[in-house]
Amino acid sequence: MINAQLSILQIACTIMLASFAAYLGGRVHQWRRQDNERNTAFREGFLRASEGFMRLPAGGSRLPTGSPVPVNRGVLPMTRVIARGDR
User: Fold this and answer.
1) How far apart are alpha carbons 41 and 39 in whole angstroms?
2) Between 78 and 25, where is the model more confident?
3) Of the candidates 71, 70, 73, 69, the residue with the CA atom closest to the CA atom of residue 81
4) What pTM value is reported for the model?
5) pLDDT at 26
6) Using one digit for the tens of pLDDT, what is the confidence trace for 40-82?
7) 76: alpha, beta or left, given left = phi > 0 and alpha = psi -120 to 50?
8) Which of 22, 30, 50, 78 reaches 20 to 30 Å from 72, CA-CA?
9) CA distances, 83 to each of 22, 47, 60, 86, 87 (Å)
10) Under DSSP, is residue 83 helix (H, G, I), strand (E, B) or coil?
11) b/e string for 40-51 if b means 16 or more Cβ within 10 A?
């Protein structure tokens, strides 16, 4: 009787430990994915800002609102340019 209760307790503890390990693994995966998305968004914003800043001293004209920004550095294509007052 005691032996059967002990094995049931061991099985329950094993299931709880496996569930906790799976939950922890999912949270770590989610944190890393969000960190990668944040870093990608920062790099895209930095590239857009530096290209816009370098275009001004060169005498380049500003792109009209609504036209796509030509960026081919492995980033997602932009659908429209956000004007200053459009925030």
Assistant:
1) 5
2) 25
3) 69
4) 0.46
5) 96
6) 999 999 988 888 777 766 555 555 555 555 555 555 555 555 5
7) beta
8) 30
9) 45, 17, 16, 5, 7
10) coil
11) eeeeeeeebeee
